[in-house]
Amino acid sequence: MTIFIQKIKKLFELFSTYITPPIFAVLFIGILTCILLFISPINGLADNGQYFYVLNSNSLFINNPNTYPYADYFQKTYGIMQYFNQTSTKFVSVQQLFITLAIWLNKLFFSKTVFDIRFLGMVYLIFFLPAIYLLIKGLTAGVSIQKSYLMALLVIFILGDASYTIFFNSFYKEAVSYLASLYIFASCIYFYRGTKKRKEKVGMLVLLLISSIMLIGTSHQEYILVIGLVIVGIGLFKYMNTRASRFFLSFLLLWMLGTTLLATIFIPNPFQEQDLYHSLSRGVMLETDKPDKRLSEGKINPQYGLEKGTSYHENYSPVSPKSSQVKKNLLNKTGLFWILNNYLHHPNEFQAMLNLDMQDIYFVKPKELGNYEKTNHYKPKQQVNFFTLYNRINAATFPKEFNFYLLFIIVIVGIYGVGLYKGIKLNCTWMIFRFFFILGFSINLLLVFLLSVIISGDSNLVLHLFLASFYIDCLTILLLSDILGQRVWSDDQANEEAIVSYEKN
């Protein structure tokens, strides 16, 4: 038995010499994702009706309109327009950069007339794997090699889940927000934990800035996340030792706030009317027994209470949601402040809507969208089960009430708040920054929860709560890795003066 254990140790030492924990995680997740996205049966997400804006603004089109499966099946090929697009929609997003690169690669290696969405999946994957490497590098800095592999397995199990990576084979903007948020998370951890070299720290700050711009520039829904990002930025002041550096950081944070505000005002939101309608029909009116009375309280024609529970795209609602009548007498007379005022006067209904949100947060990928191509083997809306164990466990075991997550946020901020106190007392820079980093992520998690209800009711909840699911997982990964590395409130094994490298293992 002793000889067997010694052989196992030697094999592990040999393995760890060539395959470090970051490389192990990259290879493992890379292989799993390639199987999911590129090897038959090819998986992706079906179209819920929102693809049109993305396709049209990128000179792509549905090349089989009569047989297009929409939500039932995933479709991997689309047409590429050969002439100037005179009907281009006003859709502005960082996502267009990834799609443009994918189209260029598609034309170079495949076809100039047919776009295969797997090229977009490949582009996302190329950007995804370095973020995983950087994250593991930061999480495992200064930790024993055995614990490092455990942390790598934790990240593989959570962030390599197919419920996240399947978005790469789709035109949903969640793929970009996932990548941007992952880079923000990874760069912050590597900044305060993984390196003491000045050049690398500057590099991480640049990466953090670029990733933040990417996240905010994904869509209107992400604009509000600038609040949490600014809080993360406030934590960086402890690292700024000169007046010039503090001034520059202040300028950057104010620039982010100002630019986001201007973007909110001047960049059109193609889904504004749709979201506003859903915030009323599937939000304000959904949890009240008398929607007509609720509307009359807000000086709206009570007859529009008949629209309760209807969708913007329904063909048989009492009044067409897309009609000029609805726009004039309902949508134009309401808005964000009208909805906020309603929920302030009816907090119990708002609480009920938040709890309704919790029913869908664990799924990550919408269960009403098919994941397979249309063949004889698969049913409409059939879901992929390949490497989705983590999210299935979440859906089966975790509480489905908003108060649980509010408590989760309070507890995790409280835990790291003790670290902040010790950091101030000991003048420990990284512990102070870590708290603001955690606080920023926690506030953005809370904002995603609240705004999902306020802005769109219970419509497309899984997509709207995508980042909330991801932020919960990020905070869970960080807490578990800190517990495993015994550095929740201290960092005796790894600090800014002593970084253990993998080359020594």
Automatic annotation (TrEMBL):
The keyword Transmembrane helix applies. Keywords: Membrane, Transmembrane, Transmembrane helix. The lineage of its organism: Bacteria, Bacillati, Bacillota, Bacilli, Lactobacillales. It comes from Melissococcus plutonius. It comes from the Bacteria. The chain crosses the membrane at residues 12-39, 117-136, 148-169, 175-192, 201-217, 223-240, 247-267, 402-421, 433-455, 461-480. This is Transmembrane protein. The keyword Ribosomal protein does not apply.
